[in-house]
Amino acid sequence: MSTSLAQPRIARLTVDQVHAMIKAGIVHEGAPIELIDGVLVHKDRSASGEDPMSIGKEHSLVVSLLGELGVELAEHGCHIRTQNPLQLSPYDEPEPDGAILRGRPRAYTDRLPGAADTGSVIEVSDSSLAYDRKTKLALYARAGIAQYILVNLPGRCIEIHEQPRPDGSYQQVAVRRVGETVPLRLPDGERLPILADRILP
Fold it and tell me: Which residues pair with 93 in a beta bridge?
């Protein structure tokens, strides 16, 4: 007769609990972690094969390039935030490498932006590529993020995911390379076309 072993249960943390832990000094504010499905996860920004606690040079470059889009976005009544939290559910507070948000930065002085404020979420991926294609993609799709852009550093391309489904997938996927246009989605549904070259290393 076979017996099955019970799997250990994971006690998931809520966004409010994590904020209380930060306030109490249990979790250091600014630590390279994010809350994904109730679990505190280390943010992997390293280059493939390098120390996972490090930040890859190309990753840093692309995040800086994203910041340079700010002037154009402001002309459309929105802005880009880099490596700051989005509150997507009571158990999810990711910190994407970029998020195109409605309004000006001061609009979020007293609250964190959520899915309804967001036109596009951008992740810059090197050693985290598989995780960003699976776990992060599913999270953003379930939250209803209209456009998820993955800057694929090893592949030297940009993967554009649109039309989110409740099952955690996107119906439409496109790939853009150097010389091709990336239609950034703004919070009001407008598109801001940019050359892929502007956000590829």
Answer: 35
